[in-house]
Hints:
By secondary structure, the protein is an alpha+beta fold. It has helices spanning about 5-10, 30-40, 50-55, 75-85, 95-100, 100-105, 120-125, 125-135, 170-180, 185-190, 230, 235-245, 265-280, 325-330, 335-350; strands at about 20-25, 40-45, 65, 85-90, 140-145, 155, 165-170, 195, 200-210, 215-230, 250-255, 290-295, 300-310. Helix 2 crosses helix 15 (about 335-350).
Amino acid sequence: MILKKDIEEILNDYDKEKIVICTIGSHTALQIAKGARDENFSNLLLCVQKSEKFYNQFDIVDDVMRINSYEEILDEEIQDMLIERNSILIPHGSFVEYVGSKNIIDKLKVPMHGNRLVLEWESDRKKEREWFEKSKLRVPREFKSPDEIDSIAIVKFPGARGGGNYFIVKNEDEFYEKIGKINLPKEIKERYTIQEYVIGTRFYPHFFYSALDDRVELLGMDIRYESNVDGISRIPAVIQNEIQIEPSYVITGNIPVVMRESLLPELMEIARNLINSSKKLFRPGLIGPFCVELVLTDDLEFVCFEISARIVAGTNLFINGSPYSSLIYNEPMSMGRRICRDIRIAIKSQRLDEIIY
Ligand code: AMP
């Protein structure tokens, strides 16, 4: 395991005038590159062959470095080069998915924005649930085994797989019938979670926790556009019944949304509770961007079913700021830019070690 003090030692030798903001070319890389540019940092994207040309065409991208595979970022030689260039890594969804939270914690010695220990908590459903419960949030019921299913349930598999292979069941028989048809490696298939399917409206609020001044900011909100479930409603119910389409939950895009203003105080309380309990569960707790995935029921109850403790792709809607960010900032403040602003403020006040691990 790479300890925080190891990272601090590396950071101590950095030339703070020449910090480079670095991430993998995917997910929210353009937003992060623009955020770096807006905050007067240079940026570097690590790209595999198929994305190199795409990222190279943007003027806001200063430098693209070709890697053969995403895991290559763990190679000693590449890590040393990144450290030599005074790089600070920004983890995003694809970064965590491709490199793996365990590899990041055990092998990656390049300084990273935020507290990398959070990745263990967001990627393990048991730990995530413990975090939610400690934060006193309402969560969907979980069925420990298929014979407990007594309402509509969603079956999920581990990893940030963008909802791939999830399915809906009503009872035990249907569970076994459907899981038999799922094409996933055995070790992943066996680690399913069966969760009550919560009916209501979904919201994916984007928060930033500024550890430097102990403040939670709401910077935007989206709804995930998922295929094919969001397309099914366009087919009349009678035809749906005839052709028996199974809903799937693969993320294909994001739609902006705002929440009833009277619900925002409770939403902010949820975010604050998550921060407070994170400080107890994995010191110094969550730092920087996070998103709580939730359903609001018709009795206006928030049910939280997932947390992403890093920048989420829905923030790409707000590269020019959002209705919420413009209440806090008089300039276009994307999440990518907010992360870079955090680094800029920390450098100026010589507190970089407080927001990097
Ligand atoms: P997740 O991988 O947990 O983000 O789930 C992917 C998608 O499945 C979500 O964006 C929702 O549309 C749907 N989903 C997940 N869990 C639930 C739940 N407990 N109730 C209703 N919908 C859910």
